[in-house]
């Protein structure tokens, strides 16, 4: 899962980033309005943690920009401005939740998990396709009810496709979603090929009825046999 933190407080941003990365999220940062705007224009995120008071603009204006771009992204407002007016305005503009500062990281994690689960799978705690089952809260993968061991990126790739069964995903989109939005600095996607190859081998050996099919020159999609 890919999260963008829009926060001008360097210490809070770094502490929150480190905490989320321990939970195996892919995290990007924006310390100001301009950086955040560039990122939401160029990339897609599963969740945005949005401060209202930024040095060069308002987080509420970023909600307007998300609407204008037609992007339906989960947004949790994190702000010291714990006024009813800000809360109502943010929710009216499309934010999904509001957590006042200072916040406990454990509560933030719970809010993110609840929000992602509710929006992606209507509250289900399992993601299933064919005979493959993923339990995101536990980072477990099962094929035909038998647990399969995957490394972190193999797991991230599989979950990304399990949430988008049958959808063709190009290599750059996959790289940005699983490795972060600095992926445009790399020269090639050889690292993706290696991870996909290993994942396909593990699924086949486990007897999975779904497979990652390569579409030459474009990308991959998860399909059932």
From TrEMBL:
<feature type="DNA-binding region" description="OmpR/PhoB-type">
    <location>
        <begin position="124"/>
        <end position="224"/>
    </location>
</feature>
<feature type="domain" description="Response regulatory">
    <location>
        <begin position="2"/>
        <end position="116"/>
    </location>
</feature>
<dbReference type="GO" id="GO:0005829">
    <property type="term" value="C:cytosol"/>
</dbReference>
<dbReference type="GO" id="GO:0000976">
    <property type="term" value="F:transcription cis-regulatory region binding"/>
</dbReference>
<keyword id="KW-0238">DNA-binding</keyword>
<dbReference type="InterPro" id="IPR039420">
    <property type="entry name" value="WalR-like"/>
</dbReference>
<feature type="domain" description="OmpR/PhoB-type">
    <location>
        <begin position="124"/>
        <end position="224"/>
    </location>
</feature>
<dbReference type="Pfam" id="PF00072">
    <property type="entry name" value="Response_reg"/>
</dbReference>
<dbReference type="InterPro" id="IPR011006">
    <property type="entry name" value="CheY-like_superfamily"/>
</dbReference>
<dbReference type="InterPro" id="IPR036388">
    <property type="entry name" value="WH-like_DNA-bd_sf"/>
</dbReference>
<keyword id="KW-0597">Phosphoprotein</keyword>
<keyword id="KW-0902">Two-component regulatory system</keyword>
<dbReference type="InterPro" id="IPR001789">
    <property type="entry name" value="Sig_transdc_resp-reg_receiver"/>
</dbReference>
<dbReference type="GO" id="GO:0006355">
    <property type="term" value="P:regulation of DNA-templated transcription"/>
</dbReference>
<dbReference type="InterPro" id="IPR001867">
    <property type="entry name" value="OmpR/PhoB-type_DNA-bd"/>
</dbReference>
<keyword id="KW-0804">Transcription</keyword>
<feature type="modified residue" description="4-aspartylphosphate">
    <location>
        <position position="51"/>
    </location>
</feature>
<dbReference type="Pfam" id="PF00486">
    <property type="entry name" value="Trans_reg_C"/>
</dbReference>
<protein>
    <submittedName>
        <fullName>Response regulator transcription factor</fullName>
    </submittedName>
</protein>
<keyword id="KW-0805">Transcription regulation</keyword>
<dbReference type="GO" id="GO:0000156">
    <property type="term" value="F:phosphorelay response regulator activity"/>
</dbReference>
<dbReference type="GO" id="GO:0032993">
    <property type="term" value="C:protein-DNA complex"/>
</dbReference>
């Amino acid at each position: 899962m890919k999260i963008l933190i829009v926060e001008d407080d360097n210490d809070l941003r770094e502490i929150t980033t480190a905490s989320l990365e321990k939970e195996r999220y892919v995290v990007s940062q924006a310390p100001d309005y301009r950086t955040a705007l560039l990122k939401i224009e160029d990339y897609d995120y599963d969740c945005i943690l949005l401060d209202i008071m930024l040095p060069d603009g308002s987080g509420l204006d970023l909600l307007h920009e998300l609407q204008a771009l037609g992007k339906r992204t989960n947004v949790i407002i994190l702000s010291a401005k714990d006024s009813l007016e800000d809360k109502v305005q943010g929710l009216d503009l499309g934010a999904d939740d509001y957590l006042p500062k200072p916040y406990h990281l454990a509560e933030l994690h719970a809010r993110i998990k609840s929000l992602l689960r509710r929006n992606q799978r209507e509250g289900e705690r399992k993601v299933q396709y064919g005979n493959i089952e993923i339990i995101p809260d536990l980072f477990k993968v099962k094929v035909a009810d038998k647990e399969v061991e995957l490394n972190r990126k193999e797991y991230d790739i599989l979950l990304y496709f399990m949430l988008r069964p049958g959808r063709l995903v190009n290599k750059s989109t996959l790289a940005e979603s699983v490795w972060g939005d600095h992926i445009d600095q790399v020269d090639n996607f050889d690292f993706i090929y290696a991870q996909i190859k290993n994942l396909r081998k593990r699924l086949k050996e486990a007897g999975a009825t779904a497979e990652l099919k390569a579409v030459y020159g474009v990308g991959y999609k998860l399909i059932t046999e």
